[in-house]
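Q: What would this complex look like in 3D?
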Amino acid sequence: MADLTSTFIGIKSPNPFWLASAPPTDKEYNVRRAFDAGWGGVVWKTLGEAGPPVVNVNGPRYGAIYGADRRLLGLNNIELITDRPLEVNLEEMTRVKRDYPDHALIASLMVPMNEDAWREILRRVEDTGCDGVELNFGCPHGMSERGMGSAMGQVPDYVGQVAHWCKKHSDLPVIVKLTPNITDIRLPARAAKEGGADAVSLINTINSITSVDLDLFAPEPTIDGKGAHGGYCGPAVKPIALNMVAEIARDPETAGLPISGIGGVTTWRDAAEFMTLGAGNVQVCTAAMTYGFKVVEEMISGLSQWMDEKGMTSTSEIVGRAVPNTVNWQDLNLNYVTKAVIDQDACIQCGRCYAACEDTSHQAISMSETRVFEVIDAECVACNLCVNVCPVEDCITMEQMAAGSVDPRTGKVVEKEYANWTTHPNNPGSCAAE
Amino acid sequence: MKDNAYTAGIIPGRLSPEDYAENFSDLHPRLDDHEALVAADRCYFCHDAPCITACPTDIDIPLFIRQIATGTPEAAARTILSQNIMGGMCARVCPTETLCEEVCVREVAEGKPVLIGQLQRYATDTLMDAGVHPFTRAASTGKRIAVVGAGPAGLSCAHRLAMHGHDVTLFDARAKPGGLNEYGIASYKTVDDFAQREVEWLLQIGGITLETDKTLGLDVSLESLQSGFDAVFLGIGLGGVNALGLDGDDMDGLHDAVDFIANLRQTSDVATLPIGRDVVVIGGGMTAVDAAVQAKLLGALNVTLVYRRGRDRMNASVFEQDLAASKGVRIITNATPRAVIGNGAVREIEFEYTDDDLAPTGQTFRLAADQVFRAIGQSLTGGSLPALDGRKIAVSSAGRTSISGIWAGGDCAAGGDDLTVTAVAEGRDAAMDIHATLTGAT
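A: Here is my prediction, written as structure tokens for the whole assembly.
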């Protein structure tokens, strides 16, 4: 079985699966149980300044969207940072780290935009023995109205400044947690790096309204007839998170900057995907909130099996493996021609591929009197929609046309050589040699 | 000692009140809201779905299931009822395993179809329990139509005609409307007087005058209907019952299964119904299974269903056969009754094994029988009917008979498959043809 031991910016943990700073990590009881269940690390629920703690709403604080069979696909929350006294959290963190020295324990921090505040909180958390700090520049609700969280994370200069203060006032490794509620994720990542941060983690939650109560005419979760936008997470945000992780991983200015991947990690497969796009480890919240801490067992066994199958012995071998293959559109090979192929033995004749193609795409699937569905190669542009809507896995596949054969749609011979848009004759800016 | 399953003879009260209640409770209780959502989520919303094609009434099944999944079972019910006004009964009695659910792509993929029948019941019950009748009657056309037979075909026809503004007089020979829905279907498939409730709900459309205890040929003549109405629809079913054709067919203890089932449906207390200890049912259709299963549920010790051909030829579906087996009914195939043995009352019945072509094999056996139910088919009764095709009324498209102005549908018409849902479709389609004929509408 593959060794899952992880070292992330010098912080060791038994595996790369950490619990993200969130409701599950708000107190000692939870964190002990999480470690006992197998989680490799925990980012403690975000701490604020000393003094009277924040308060949360007393109505519902989560909203959700569902797939079939009420499978939870997306969760949003309007919960703030920890609403327990700073001293209590620090005492509990100290005890937990003492009892679980081999597990990663990270302090998540959120204080106002002034150096003294950051210096003071760093001084307090260092005494807990924690392995590092994560700067919460991400929360998009509540705290952002007070100039913290994403309100700071959306200003790259602030991100760099705070990272700098933290490195100046503490020897602890510093992870900057980024908000996705920004146009170009690379800018705050660059600022974090320039400020001296050891790593970035992303994504925090996305501004969202999950649904509207159609009787009350109010967003959900609804508090006394009103709703506020929350932070969206869960499987639904994974594609957005994967892209943002990849953007940072392949940006020359931030290439090599360690990344902790967050956003909808639900299975070992999700974790592996984040890591191939450059994440050194992953952080999980919604999967644990949906299924309990036990889900980590599947993540551990699944990643181990996959690594064994790939002949990998260390999680570091996964990191960044897909980054070189993540390119700009213009670099894609226009001479790569595929056609959809339907496995008639696997087909259950639901006809969804036909409806999708006939109504919304290229009229490239025929339907016989006896419900046999076949691809019309002369019309198929290989868009993949039929594959995506087919309910049977591997029933429809995209098969590459051999070089030298003629694409019946275009009448052109499939070229063997790679050629992209930059050299295409239709491109006004084409730089093809005359 | 109290009577029980071992007590000889044909007696009532073999079971405890609790057992009777349990045995005659709903075969498939209505799905609750959660169950319905889980079941609805499994539908793939197929294109030109096979289930629609398999439904004799062409209900848009993917659409109504999607309407359930999105929290609008009332809209789902409208989708169902616009095609099949008796969607509530059909949801209970349709052999879905040989219709929509047989061709469900999830049956193909996983051997587990979407629960179409139960979802249909969920939707129609939701609407009907709310007391909503979702259709309104068009302005009166002044046309008068006689519908004979208030079974599924006649009710369907009458409703569709009334909806289009015609005035319908609906005749039935029995004391209550509903036809086989009321008198011919096993109790556990339609509990809580559903057949009557459905008729009352259906009649809310207005424009239908119900005349019960009116038998065609006795109380009303076809000629008088022809002269008194603008059109006539015959949905008279099959009133006669085939006989065994053996000596002793009239012995005590021999009954027609349809009468047994009708009595069961009309009784207010099944504990008062006498049932034999050793019951033999002869036949292989739904009626035979309904009789056999209910004999068992009434407390008979031994119930044997004997069919002259092989299992694959039985009209009762595999589901029905399995249901019978699960209740303890023994099924014997390839055996034909040869003699009824007894002295005034039946004591035994002798069968001979026959091959698939019904040729005798010479091998015989006897079954102890204090009660025998004949379920070997029903036949059309009544004289001066339109021309027949075989033993049923000949019909062309949309139920037109040999006589202009007379339509027919349901079990009495040739070509159907003796299913409730088919009768509903035929009644509906005849109504549309009558409407088009009388008004010139297309």
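A: To summarize the key features: The mean pLDDT of chain A is 96. Residues 6-317 of chain A form a domain with the TIM Barrel fold (CATH 3.20.20.70).
Q: Very helpful, thank you.
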